[in-house]
Design goal:
Layout lengths: L2 H37 L11 H10 L17 H20 L6 H7 L1 H10 L20
């Protein structure tokens, strides 16, 4: 193969990868952007790393720093489990904030882009934070 054919193949491959990256970016950004708009936040806030999950945790009624639990994923095994548990709790409250069953947390945790898209495009309205403050846990008296 001559040099011109190699560079043509390389250019085609680079173009394909750029298109694939653009599609992945759109599939990742659009659902969260739409959800932020439904929450009453500017959509562009969804583009800011860490801050976007900070605001999602606040919208769910949890302290904002809970949204930063993704940083725990840097710790092998234990960090991943801790981050998954914390995100599940945030997603459970986020589902309640839209009047959904807490079982929606499974979808929001394991397939977040689909869950965000369903919440953003669905007919359910954001009802305010549904975290531990509005729903105090019952104590045995």
């Amino acid at each position: 193969m001559d040099d011109l054919g190699f560079f043509g193949l390389f250019g085609a491959l680079a173009g394909f990868l750029a298109l694939a990256a653009l599609i992945v970016f759109a599939v990742s950004v659009v659902p969260l952007w739409l959800l932020f708009r439904k929450l009453g936040y500017p959509g562009w806030w969804s583009l800011i790393p860490f801050f976007n999950f900070f605001k999602l945790a606040e919208a769910a009624g949890r302290p904002g720093f809970w949204g930063l639990c993704g940083i725990l994923g840097a710790i092998p095994v234990v960090g991943w489990i801790a981050a998954l548990v914390v995100m599940f709790l945030i997603n459970q409250d986020l589902a309640r904030s839209f009047g959904k069953d807490p079982a929606w947390a499974i979808l929001l945790t394991f397939l977040p882009w689909f869950g965000w898209l369903f919440l953003a495009l669905g007919s359910d309205e954001y009802q305010g934070p549904a975290g531990p403050e509005p729903h105090h846990y019952k104590r045995a008296v």
